Amino acid sequence: MTDLTAAPADLMIETPSWAYGNSGTRFKVFAQQGVPRDPYEKIADAAQVHAFTGAAPTVALHIPWDRVDDYAALTAHARSLDVGIGAINANVFQDDDYMLGSVTNPDPRVRRKATDHLLECVDIMDATGSRDLKLWFSDGTNYPGQDDIRARQDRLAEALEEVYARLGGDQRILLEYKLFEPAFYTMDVPDWGTSLVHCLALGPKATVCVDTGHHAPGTNIEFIVAMLLRAGRLGAFDFNSRFYADDDLMVGAADPFQLFRIMHEVVRGGGLDPATGVAFMLDQCHNIEPKIQGQIRSVMNVQEATAKALLVDAAALKSAQETGDVLGANAVLMDAYNTDVRPLLAEWRTAKGLSADPIAAYRASGYFEKIVAERVGGSQAGWGA
Ligand code: AOS
Ligand code: ZN
Ligand code: ZN
User: Fold this and answer.
1) Record's Pfam families (predicted)?
2) Residue 176 Cβ < 6 Å to ligand 1
3) Complex ipTM > 0.90
4) Domains contained in the chain, CATH given
C-alpha cells in the first residue's frame, strides 16, 4: 500500500487567472460580486486557493487578458502572496485579423502578427521566470475546400519552429489540441496525434497539453495519457470536466471515475514525479458558482482522484493481469476507486497545518466579504467579450 501521507499532497496544481474573472457563455456573462479588477487581484485570489489547500502554488497568466506594464512587479506581487506565476497562455483568437486563422492564416501579414504575439509571450516568460508557453490555436476551417489542409500544417510548423528557436534553455512549449470549436470542419490541431507530430518535429522542449474537455464523447483519455507518458511528451493537463462539449466545468464533477482512471495512468507512467515534467493545471470557468471556492473544490477533486490512484495495489494488479484474472484485475482498480479517501486527505491537511476542510475554512475566513466590499466593477475573464 502506498504511503498516502506524502504523495497526493505533493501534487501541485496550477490555477488559471481567468477562472477568477467573470465568465459565461455566448448567451450571457453573469457578473459576480467581488471579482478581480486586474491581474494583481486575480493573483491575490489564486493565493487564497493556495493558502487553504497548500497545493496550488502557481497561477497561469493569459496574454493579453493579464497584460501589465511591469511583469517583474507582478511577479514580485505573486511572491509576496506566497505564489508564483506559472504558464503563460497566448491568445491568437480574439482579434478580427484572425477570422481565417492566426499562424495558419493564408495571409502572411496575419501570420507574422500572430507569431510576433507568441514571441512576445516568451519575452514575458523571461520576465516572470515561467517555464511553460501554452499554445492553443483556434485556427481551422468551417467548410470543405475553404483552405488547403496541408498548407495550413506547413504554416503552423513554420510558426512553431520560430517560437521554439526563441525558447530559453528551461522553457517549453505546451501544444494544446481541441477537436472542434470555434472551427467546425477542421481544427488545425484537433487531436493528440497532430500535436505530438509537431512536438516530435520541434524537439524535446515541445510537449502535448491534454485538456480533458477537448475530445469526442467516449474518447479514452487515459489511453492518450499512457501513450504520451510513454513517449515522454505529456507536458501538461488542462483539467476540467464536461457533459457535452468544452464545458469547462469543475474537474471531477462530471465523471470522477474518468479522472481516477487518468490519474491511475499518471501514477503508472511516473507522471507524479516532478522530474517527468507534467504540469497539472486547471482550465475552468465558474459561470454560476463562486470562483475561489470552485477552484478550491477542483484542487480537492484532483487530490481525491490522485489519492485513490495511489491506493491501487500495484503488485496485486500486476499479478492479476499476468495470470489473466480479468475480474481480479478490475476488482483491484475498483477497490481503490471505491475507497473513501476524504478522511486520509483531511489527516494530511491537518498534519501540514492546513484546515481539514478547506472550503469551510475559506468561507469562515471573511475573504469573500472583504473583496465584495473592496472591489466594485470586476472584470470579465476574457471569454464572450
Ligand atoms: C480553449 O478551448 C482552450 O481550452 C484554452 O486552453 C483556454 O481555455 C484558453 O486559451 C484560455 O486561456
Ligand atoms: Zn485548455
Ligand atoms: Zn477549452
Assistant:
1) RhaA
2) yes
3) yes
4) 9-311+366-374 (3.20.20.150), 313-354 (no CATH)
